[in-house]
Here is the input.
Amino acid sequence: MLCAVGAPVPVALAQGSLSDTYSGEDLVDSGKQFFGSASQGLASVVERAVSQFGLPNGYILGEDAGGALFAGARYGEGVLHTRNAGEFNIFWQGPSIGFDVGGDGSKVMMLVYNLSQVSDTLGRFAGVDGSAYVLGGFGMTVLKRGNVVMVPIRSGVGARLGINVGYLKFTNEPTWNPF
Here is the structure.
């Protein structure tokens, strides 16, 4: 993580179109390698996302953690994968508010749609999240900013119950400020 903080911002953040997409099979294969033994429910969640939004032209593999007592926060980090521009470190953090209590830690695969350049992933993406689990499982959320849509698919552990509204702010450097 210290190397990522000191690394310069990649020149490719300003590059052109990222039109090549990933097939559902590509995503499931990457997810199975990443999630390991917890990957049984992954195929059905990816299938649902692809049927609803089409084929993504990027995806993020990472980890995050969050907690809430009516107001909450989430922090995470991962690697953005694209076919045309390569791989880039990305970080996210954000506040939430709602009827939500508990905490969780997750491995995350975020499908990224309508990505024209890597810098389109940076900024605030708003969404609604609902959680109801005691030990773990797979869950899917939809976040949107402009034309870019991100669909985080989480597999985690913890105890969380509720629904909240908030946003995730994606950056190329880590920060503790969720706003």
